[in-house]
Amino acid sequence: PPNVIQPGYMKSLQECGFRTYGSGSAGRITGKVTLVNCTAKNVRVGFALHANSENPPVSLTDCIAMGCERAYNLNKAHVINCRGNAQYGPLLYLFGEEKSTIDLTLLPETSNRTVNAVATICGQYHEVTLKGNRYQEHPILLGYKQPPAGEISAPISEASANGVKLINKTSMPVIAGKMAEDCTVITDTVVQRDGKKIEILRHKEYPE
């Protein structure tokens, strides 16, 4: 509700570029999923990929998402050298209680449409590296989850994030919400720290 397109947002007429259901669908069980050098453009979700507890993480290498409402929506994923923009919505929605390792580059394209966040991260024990720059600033939200159904015009709610390591090599600010705990943020940008036991390091203090 109210079931109308909100002003200021870009909406796609296409569904997902690449999508899996961790538990399968229509009696089919999802197995191991690997994507290499795949491109999603101008869709509702570029990569909506989930793995269940019985399978290894979904694997993405050298993939790119351009002009999507949200580029990567991931649960239990291993991402290497992938890219995307936050032109019309977030680069990343990450969630799940099983560890994901994420290596994503934020591309420079922007627009005059409303974007509420570059990324939201919740769940536990993820290792997330975000790189790249652009002139528009939107926050990286740690301890927040995607809106219902990923609707980019809906409010973003807080959610538990525990034991997450965020390496922010972008120029975007970071907000660690009240439900973030025992997390490490490595960044040279501004950090709003509302959670518990949030360690903040500058890149010169962090041996990679």
Q: How would you describe what is shown here?
A:
By secondary structure, the chain is mainly beta. The chain is built from no helices and 23 strands. Strands 3, 6, 9, 11, 13, 14, 18, 19, 21 and 23 form a 10-stranded parallel sheet that branches. It is globular, with a radius of gyration of 16 Å. The mean pLDDT is 94.
Name the descriptors.
mainly beta; 23 strands; globular; 208 residues; 8-stranded parallel sheet; 10-stranded parallel sheet
Summarize the structure.
The protein has strands at 16-19, 34-36, 39-41, 45-50, 58-61, 64-66, 70-75, 77-80, 82-84, 92-95, 101-106, 119-121, 123-124, 127-131, 140-142, 144-145, 157-158, 161-162, 165-168, 174-176, 180-187, 191-193, 196-201. The chain is mainly β and 208 residues long. Strands 3, 6, 9, 11, 13, 14, 18, 19, 21 and 23 form a ten-stranded parallel beta sheet that branches. Strands 1-4-7-10-12-15-20-22 form an eight-stranded parallel beta sheet, with no helix packed on it. A three-stranded parallel beta sheet has the order 2-5-8, with no helix packed on it.
How many helices does DSSP assign? 0
Percentage of residues in helical conformation? under 10%
Query: What global shape is seen?
Result: globular
Largest sheet: 10 strands, parallel
| Strand-pairing-aware structural class | mainly beta
- End-to-end CA span: 46 Å
**Radius of gyration over C-alpha positions, nearest whole angstrom:** 16 Å
Mean pLDDT: 94
What are the segments in which pLDDT stays under 50 over at least 5 consecutive residues?
none
Q: What's the total count of β strands? A: 23
Strand content: 35-45%
Written as H for each helix and E for each strand, in order along the chain, the element string is: EEEEEEEEEEEEEEEEEEEEEEE
